[in-house]
Amino acid sequence: MLKWVRKNPVVTGVGALAVAGLVVTAVTSGGFSPTSAYSGCGYGYGYDSTTYAYGYGTCPPTSTGYPVPNQATGNAPGGYTQVVLNESVPSGGGVVTGTYDGSQFSANIPASDAGQGVTIAITAPTNLSNADNAILGFGVALATNGVGESGTFAAPITITITNPLIKAGDQLVEWNGSAWVAYTDATVTNGSLTVTVTSDPQFALVSPTQVPTAAPASGYHLVGADGGIFNFGHAGFYGNTYTLGLTGLHGSHPLNAPIVGVVENPSGKGYWMVGADGGVFNFGGAKFYGSTYSLGLTGLSGSHPLASPVVGMAATPDGKGYWLVTKAGFVYSFGDASFYGDTFSYGLTGLTGAHPLAAPIVGIAADASGKGYWLVGADGGVFNFGDATFYGTTYSRGLTGLTGARPLAAPIVGIAATPDGDGYWLVGADGGIFNFGNAGFDGSTYSRGLTGLTGSHPLNAPIVGIVPTANGDGYWMVGKDGGVFNFGNAGFDGSTYSYGITGLSGAHPLSAPIVGIAD
Q: For 62-210, CATH number?
């Protein structure tokens, strides 16, 4: 509950009026007998021929009575519905102030914006990582009698925020409904930000080197367990296992094992697929540098089988090598991809033995330098190798893996690194996102009103992969049914449903589940 704080001047003689359960304090020089009254969520007012009064109470932040920012431009990533300051505006205009999360807010409202029943609200995001390297975020709105004002304010409102984290040169960005864009009518100095607004914007203050930009020409590939490829946007089609004469998971020439992932060639115009048996298939400009069969292993069976299935693949930055990782945490390197260690290097013993993993490994991501990588387990544990820096795990957030007092809502299924390697995202099968380092939070399937794998609005199918945009200001997730979810500046270029396919069931189902996405 948020307690509204009265800022009206105190004069002699105070009457009181009960309005819809609120106590309305009247500023008057005598008795108060209202001839008209109004009450809204958290406040009310009443007046007679000589006196006007405001009253303040409490109500839940989700109440429709709160004058939260107009949603015409869409909710900015991070959600700007947390009301942190909500105060009446004196009829002649004036200044209202408040404090929240280390920031001092001051709003100067001109007389032409003020009037009976007018309040100003300052809102905050629920997650300050809504833009890269976000320092703080806030929204502004006026309301009359509890109803949010839309359109342009009668006169500009000046907002001043002081916080020691603010530095000269930081950039204020505004959410325009689909992306963060620079906002020029602002002054930023060390410790202070002053901005003039004429409508109900949603802002974030970010480092000047991390101002989110428009997404580059986008596109992505989805891969099925049968080796089928679906290409969208600017992503080209360079072949699939069927073009090699194989017949998917069945038929006369089936794959030795299901495909488990796809990786884009960093130089463009090609991709690799990897199978659970360690087999690698290269297409377009992606070159073949070897597979587990090249090392004398015989897949999932035979005389020299893998100790556990391959679950992921990552390419070096120059596209001249790649790593494969197994469910037990063993890493195989090919081409110019060097070996920097695996979970066995930590003294762990895979899925069994004296010191087993807490959960199977499910993915790998390469550091931007090409001299390190991260592995992630289904429990949200992260292992870093080479010069890949550790930025945290789901355990760092107080969660307890797949079991325990505070387990994950669903297993982690993938990891993706930021373009500069200074952060990473983990994604759960339920579409939950965990961001670490400089990886921004741009939303999850829960942000879309979905309720994970169960609940009133569950996903059609579990999420199986994540890939960021080229500049890291957004990401895509893909479900097992081929459904694609886009966040931040990641554009939606289609899904398997766009092809007339009906997911995992229905009239035209996929021939095999989707298992990965690459950009």
A: 2.60.220.30
**Phi, psi for 446 (deg, rounded to 5):** -65, -30
Domain boundaries, the chain: 1-59, 62-210, 219-518
Distances (CA, A) of 349 to 53, 176, 343, 354, 364: 72, 51, 8, 7, 18
Across 270-391, the runs of DSSP E, i.e. the strands, are: 270-275, 280-284, 310-315, 321-326, 331-335, 361-366, 372-377, 382-386
CB 312 within 8 A of CB 319: no
Token pair for 463: 């999420």
List phi, psi (to 5°) of 294: -65, -20
* DSSP string covering 144-199: ETTEE--S--SS-EEEEEE-TT--TT-EEEEE-SSSEEE--SEEEETTEEEEEESS
CA-wise closest residue to 475 among 73, 127, 79, 132 = 132
Contacts of 284 (CB under 8 A, 6+ apart): 236, 238, 239, 265, 269, 270, 271
- What SS3 state is found at 262? strand
302-313 per-residue burial string, b: 16 or more CB within 10 A, e: under 16? eeeebebbbbbb
> Exposed, middle or buried by CB within 10 Å (0-12, 13-18, 19+), for 169?
exposed
pLDDT in tens, 409-451: 999 999 999 999 999 999 999 999 999 999 999 999 999 999 9
Beta-bridged to residue 160, according to DSSP, are: 106, 194
The answer to whether 327 touches 309, Cβ cutoff 8 Å, is yes
Return the higher-pLDDT residue of 63 and 359. 359
User: Distance (Å, rounded) from C-alpha 365 to C-alpha 416?
Assistant: 6
How far is the C-alpha of 140 from the C-alpha of 149, rounded, in Å?
Answer: 11
Percent helix, strand, coil in the chain, to 5, is 5, 40, 55
Task: Say how far apart CA 504 and CA 498 lie, in whole Å.
Answer: 14
pTM for the predicted model, two decimal places: 0.63
Q: What is the CATH number of domain 219-518?
A: 2.120.10.30
Closest CA to 409 of 436, 428, 394: 428
CA distances from 151 to 179, 201, 378 (A): 20, 11, 47
Residue 214 has pLDDT above 80, yes or no: no
Contacts of residue 439, defined as CB under 8 A and 6 or more positions apart, other chains included, come to 129, 391, 418, 423, 424, 425, 472
Rounded CA-CA distance 148/158 in Å is 18
